[in-house]
């Protein structure tokens, strides 16, 4: 397992280190060099560990089991648009997204980034991607993207930090 934190000139938070620990404790079950798990299977493997540290975790694809994050509010202050997260901790405002095969191939990590930037309560984003997918290093490609984005200094990023985990 590998991880990188952005922006590179800031120290990672203790709360995000706890998320890394959950992935480390489950590495034997989710390691992409040994297992070809779908993202939901990886999320299921780490769910108990995340819940132990205060996260709500998506239980299934049924509407009532999803983690809905408000983006826009309508009449009477009711959310009129929500995006979904795989896991969220309301005490530290960390959103977690777990990806598998389509993280880079379909640029799912960019959708995760965009959506978390729009979420009302999101301060930090953690995106977990495979280290190895079809002989490609998805983790490296995602990190290179965020390196370029932060180095270019052309974006105003509303998140305090982004953690990329390669499993």
Textual characterization of the structure:
There is one protein chain. The protein is an alpha/beta fold and about 170 residues long. It has one domain (about 1-60, about 75-165): Restriction Endonuclease. The chain is built from 6 helices and 8 strands. It has helices at about 15-25, 25-30, 40-50, 100-105, 110-120, 140-150, and strands at about 1-5, 55, 65-75, 80-85, 85-90, 95-100, 125-130, 160-165. A hairpin with a 4-residue loop joins strand 5 (about 85-90) and strand 6 (about 95-100). The protein is globular, with a radius of gyration of 15 Å. It starts with a strand and ends with a strand.
Topology record:
Layout: E1 2-6, H1 14-25, H2 27-30, H3 39-52, E2 56-57, E3 67-73, E4 79-85, E5 87-89, E6 94-98, H4 102-105, H5 108-118, E7 124-129, H6 138-152, E8 161-166
Parallel strand pairs: 6-7, 7-8
Antiparallel strand pairs: 1-8, 2-5, 3-4, 5-6
| Poorly predicted runs of 5 or more residues | none
Rg is 15 Å
Instruction: Please report the number of helical segments.
Output: 6
**What average pLDDT do the residues reach?**
95
| Shape, per Cα inertia axes | globular
Strand adjacency order, main sheet: 1-8-7-6-5-2
Structural class: alpha/beta
Number of domains: 1
Task: Tell me the strand percentage band.
Answer: 15-25%
CATH class: Alpha Beta
Distance between the termini: 5 Å
Total strand count, please? Answer: 8
Portion in helices? 25-40%
């Amino acid at each position: 397992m590998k991880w990188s934190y952005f922006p590179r000139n800031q120290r990672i938070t203790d709360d995000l280190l706890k998320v890394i620990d959950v992935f480390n404790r489950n590495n034997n079950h989710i390691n992409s060099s040994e297992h070809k798990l779908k993202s939901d299977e990886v999320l299921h493997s780490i769910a108990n560990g995340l819940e132990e540290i205060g996260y709500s975790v998506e239980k299934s694809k049924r509407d009532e089991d999803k983690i809905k994050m408000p983006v826009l509010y309508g009449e009477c202050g009711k959310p009129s648009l929500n995006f979904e997260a795989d896991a969220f901790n309301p005490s530290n405002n960390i959103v977690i997204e777990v990806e598998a095969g389509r993280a880079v191939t379909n640029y799912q990590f960019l959708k995760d980034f965009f959506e978390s930037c729009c979420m009302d309560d999101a301060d930090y984003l953690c995106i977990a991607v495979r280290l190895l997918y079809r002989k490609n290093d998805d983790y490296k490609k995602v990190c290179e993207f965020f390196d370029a984005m932060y180095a270019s200094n052309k974006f105003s990023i509303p998140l305090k930090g982004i953690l990329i985990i390669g499993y």
